[in-house]
């Protein structure tokens, strides 16, 4: 039974899709004024992994995610760079795709942009005003938070306990004239030099929260299966989305709310964020570290748990990924001399099927990545044990390999087909192995030896140094 943790109810619940076999899923995307940092990438990878697991379980996933391309930060960046806000947004949307493609993130079924839904946003706000949930003051439009009976249901807060102004301030004067301090902006009157659009309330642009309500209901439905995002979006962003959407449609906005944990950095476990200045850009890290290692690192923790970023954590991910890669290479190497079938194939295939049962059981428990990876490592060890036999079956090896790749694919890990190593590549690996041995890093030394063996390279350690030859 597939269960996921629902932030709305603070408990794990059996997942039941609105339409059998199909999932509508909306995940809040970035404000495109800069490159994404590793904390942002964690959310993207977490929901990509969740999406991939739903696909593995046979669901058709309609996955929508937005780009916020109208925002104060974008306007400020445009002024700094001397270009238009649109040029800033276009630049960093392209950069987002480059970074997430490198991390093997599936592109959304649809990526939406605020500027493309402006008419829909205006119509949505008009509807809220007509229903008495919003009011206009001097070109600004605010949502009456107290008018919505369930305000605070997602963040589990009483409206009287909510901190004043957590709802996206628009300036001291505007704050003072609001009917209530907890009311939040749906539409902002234009300021000189800012992008703006014509509306019934004059020139202006939308507030942040209204954008996602409009795009989720426009491109998916009034009620969707899953809404996701970072834990920091629970309040006020997602709380306000619920208030807006349900006030307009009269229907539940999302059946399940899923939120990923933060990436932390430093000994004190501080949240990585641009506002704190302690961030590492994915763009920069990808230039230094194999993107597949970064992806594996980001995928390896439970999506709701904090994830500590450090050099040692990345190194652990690299080593684990290398062990997984070597097992895959060893399968391909042994397939060259495998026989079609052996007498005990049925026993091995029963073991293989049990791994699948164990993996699904682990991942069905709120997409529990660490437990799922434990099963993958167990499968890897069974593969390595099987490969030690003098004679191996092609049927069994292919069955193990296919299952292995299926599991790893959910975590965004893919292995390219083997290519014969060039002499310079072999020598570089031997030199790395020599250095690892000098540093007493025997795990890395053994991993390189096994990698070369899988490629058909035999090493001979002699007093004069390591010599190599290709196996016949």
UniProtKB/TrEMBL annotation:
ATP binds at residue 274. Residues 307-334, 419-446 form a coiled coil. It comes from the Bacteria. Residues 358-422 form the Cysteinyl-tRNA synthetase class Ia DALR domain. Keywords: Aminoacyl-tRNA synthetase, ATP-binding, Coiled coil, Cytoplasm, Ligase, Metal-binding, Nucleotide-binding, Protein biosynthesis, Zinc. Its EC number is 6.1.1.16. Binds 1 zinc ion per subunit. It is found in: Cytoplasm. A motif ('KMSKS' region) lies at residues 271-275. GO terms for molecular function: ATP binding; cysteine-tRNA ligase activity; zinc ion binding. Zn(2+) binds at residues 28, 212, 237, 241. A motif ('HIGH' region) lies at residues 30-40. Its main location: cytoplasm. It is an enzyme of class 6 (ligase). Its cofactor is Zn(2+). It catalyses: tRNA(Cys) + L-cysteine + ATP = L-cysteinyl-tRNA(Cys) + AMP + diphosphate. GO terms for cellular component: cytosol. GO terms for biological process: cysteinyl-tRNA aminoacylation. Gene3D superfamilies: Cysteine-tRNA ligase, C-terminal anti-codon recognition domain, HUPs. PANTHER family: CYSTEINE--TRNA LIGASE, CYTOPLASMIC, CYSTEINYL-TRNA SYNTHETASE. Belongs to the class-I aminoacyl-tRNA synthetase family. Monomer. This is Cysteine--tRNA ligase. It comes from Aerococcus sanguinicola. The lineage of its organism: Bacteria, Bacillati, Bacillota, Bacilli, Lactobacillales.
């Amino acid at each position: 039974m597939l269960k996921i943790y629902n932030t709305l109810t603070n408990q794990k619940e059996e997942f039941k899709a609105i339409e059998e076999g199909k999932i509508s899923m909306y995940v809040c995307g970035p404000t495109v004024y800069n490159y994404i940092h590793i904390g942002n990438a964690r959310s993207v990878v977490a929901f990509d992994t969740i999406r991939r697991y739903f696909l593995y379980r046979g669901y058709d996933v309609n996955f929508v995610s937005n780009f916020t391309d109208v925002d104060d930060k974008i306007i400020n960046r445009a002024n700094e760079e001397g270009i238009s806000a649109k040029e800033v947004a276009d630049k960093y949307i392209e950069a987002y795709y480059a970074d997430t493609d490198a991390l093997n993130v599936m592109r959304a079924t649809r990526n939406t942009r605020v500027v493309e839904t402006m008419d829909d946003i205006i119509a949505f706000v008009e509807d809220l005003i007509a229903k008495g949930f919003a009011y206009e003051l001097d070109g600004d439009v605010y949502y009456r938070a107290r008018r919505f009976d369930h305000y605070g249901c997602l963040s589990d807060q009483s409206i009287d306990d909510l901190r004043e102004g957590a709802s996206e301030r628009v300036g001291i004067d505007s704050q003072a004239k609001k009917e209530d301090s907890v009311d939040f902006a749906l539409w902002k009157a234009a300021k000189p030099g800012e992008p703006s659009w014509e509306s019934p309330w004059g020139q202006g642009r939308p507030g942040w929260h209204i954008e996602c309500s409009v795009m989720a209901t426009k491109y998916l439905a009034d009620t969707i299966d899953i809404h996701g995002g970072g834990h920091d979006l629970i309040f006020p962003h997602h709380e306000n989305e619920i208030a807006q959407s349900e006030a307009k449609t009269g229907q539940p906005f999302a059946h399940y709310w899923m939120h990923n944990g933060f990436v932390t950095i430093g000994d004190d476990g501080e949240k990585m964020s641009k506002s704190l200045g302690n961030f590492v850009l994915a763009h920069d890290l990808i230039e230094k570290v194999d993107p597949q290692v970064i992806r594996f690192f980001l995928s390896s923790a439970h999506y709701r748990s904090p994830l500590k970023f450090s050099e040692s954590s990345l190194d652990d991910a690299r080593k684990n990924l290398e062990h997984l890669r070597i097992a895959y290479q060893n399968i391909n190497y042994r397939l060259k001399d495998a026989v079609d079938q052996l007498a005990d194939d049925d026993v091995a295939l029963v073991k293989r099927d049990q791994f699948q049962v164990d993996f699904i059981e682990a991942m069905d428990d709120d997409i529990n990545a660490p437990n799922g990876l434990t099963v993958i490592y167990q499968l890897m060890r069974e593969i390595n044990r099987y490969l030690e036999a003098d004679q191996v079956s092609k049927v069994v090896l292919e069955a193990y390999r296919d299952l292995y790749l299926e599991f790893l694919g959910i975590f965004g890990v893919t292995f390219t087909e083997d290519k014969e190593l060039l002499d310079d590549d072999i020598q570089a690996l031997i030199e790395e192995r020599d250095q690892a041995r000098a540093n007493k890093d025997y795990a890395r030394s053994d991993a390189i030896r096994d990698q070369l063996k899988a490629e058909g390279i035999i090493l001979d350690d002699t007093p004069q140094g390591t010599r190599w030859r290709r196996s016949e």
